[in-house]
Amino acid sequence: MVGLPTQKASSALDLPQQQKEQGSAVVAPMSNSKPKKKICCACPDTKKLRDECIVQHGEAACSKWIEAHLQCLRAEGFKV
């Protein structure tokens, strides 16, 4: 088998270097990335205000707080 080109086998030790080289191509833009939190845990402040308003006054009277919470969720990356 003399004269045949040899290929270096990829090993686990080579992986970090390969990831570094490919790192910029792998990262997705912020608009397409997944949210970092679960929806139930995102925007606790606006969620609390929204929930309290709905309990006390009904959903129809709380559109301001509902919309504020939806805007917060969208800013966190959720599609609501």
Mean pLDDT: 76
Overall shape: rod-shaped
Please give the share of residues in helix. Answer: 40-55%
Radius of gyration over all CA atoms, rounded: 24 Å
Tell me the major beta sheet: none
Give the number of DSSP strands.
Answer: 0
Measured between the Cα atoms of the first and last residue, the distance is 62 Å
What fraction strand? under 5%
CATH class of the domain at 39-80: Mainly Alpha
Family: Belongs to the COX17 family.
Keywords: Chaperone, Copper, Disulfide bond, Metal-binding, Mitochondrion
GO molecular function: metal ion binding
Protein name: Cytochrome c oxidase copper chaperone
General description of the model:
- The chain is mainly alpha-helical and 80 residues long.
- The chain has a domain at 39-80: CytochromE C oxidase copper chaperone (Helix Hairpins, Orthogonal Bundle), CATH 1.10.287.
- It has three helices and no strands.
- The protein is rod-shaped, with a radius of gyration of 24 Å.
- Residues 1-30 are annotated as: Disordered.
- Cu cation binds at residues 40-41.
- GO terms for molecular function: metal ion binding.
- Belongs to the COX17 family.
